[in-house]
Amino acid sequence: CYRENILKTAKALVEDTKLLVSGAASSQDKLAQAAQSSANTITQLAEVVKLGAASLGSDDPETQVVLINAIKDVAKALSDLIGATKGAASKPADDPSMYQLKGAAKVMVTNVTSLLKTVKAVEDEATRGTRALEATIEYIKQELTVFQSSEVPEKASSPEESIRMTKGITMATAKAVAAGNSCRQEDVIATANLSRKAVADMLTACKQASYHPDVGEEVRERALRFGTECTLGYLELLEHVLLV
């Protein structure tokens, strides 16, 4: 029942995405209508996904987290898409903002597809761990793209905060190795959830620290490079766990 509702609402959201993209080239009224419609649809989708997560029961909290993370990714992608649509409104077809809009729409569709795959995998215990890991790998890749962009973080933080956040990577690495050895679905799901948070926190702290007022250009470039290398190394580890 929940799966059908999620599927139906997700399809409606994909249609809203198309309207948002086409709305950038039309009137402000049509754009506003498309934004409002997508906001209503994402609210409905979040509700049915939460009901679906609740139906799993409290004895499987890690899988519930996987589902909630999937809808959070879709919501974030929609927010980014609406922002990109506003930026591209009334601009010519070859304007850079139009390429950003197309990129945001692609991420949106990718995340909706990922949500549907996750919902399907939840019904099959044998594939839950694999799907959770795949979704985390995709999420980390998207976070790395944001990290590597020229966008300056809204706030700066201390280098100490960045160092503190690397401890999460150490813990997640140990968990990933253990999951690769045990190959138990619950261990793999827990690894996926922990890895997602650990890498996202590290990337955020690293970028914020690299823009600290006391940090020079050379040190900033090195910090950003090492943040990227750490993430790529961790992605390789997760790919190995997936292979196992």
Description:
There is one protein chain. The protein has 8 helices and no strands. By secondary structure, it is an all-alpha fold. α1 packs parallel to α3 and α5 packs antiparallel against α8. The radius of gyration is 19 Å and the shape is flat. The two termini are 33 Å apart. The model has no long low-confidence stretch (mean pLDDT 90).
Which descriptors apply to this entry?
0% strand; integrin binding; A middle domain of Talin 1; actin filament binding; TLN2 protein; Alpha-catenin/vinculin-like_sf; single chain; flat; 83% helix; Talin_IBS2B
Kindly report how far apart the N and C termini lie.
Answer: 33 Å
Q: Provide the helix percentage.
A: over 70%
Major sheet summary line: none
Order of helices and strands, N to C? HHHHHHHH
Number of strands: 0
Task: Indicate the proportion of strand residues.
Answer: under 5%
Number of helices, counting only DSSP H or I runs of 4 residues or more: 8
For this structure, the quaternary state is single chain
> In the CATH hierarchy, what is the class of the largest domain?
Mainly Alpha
At CATH level 3, the topology of the largest domain is: A middle domain of Talin 1
Overall pLDDT? 90
State the fourth-level CATH superfamily of the largest domain.
Talin, central domain
Globally, the shape reads flat
Going by CATH, the architecture of the largest domain would be Up-down Bundle
Q: How many structural domains in the coordinates?
A: 2
Low-pLDDT segments, ≥5 res = none
Computed over alpha carbons, the radius of gyration is 19 Å
* Class by alpha and beta content: mainly alpha
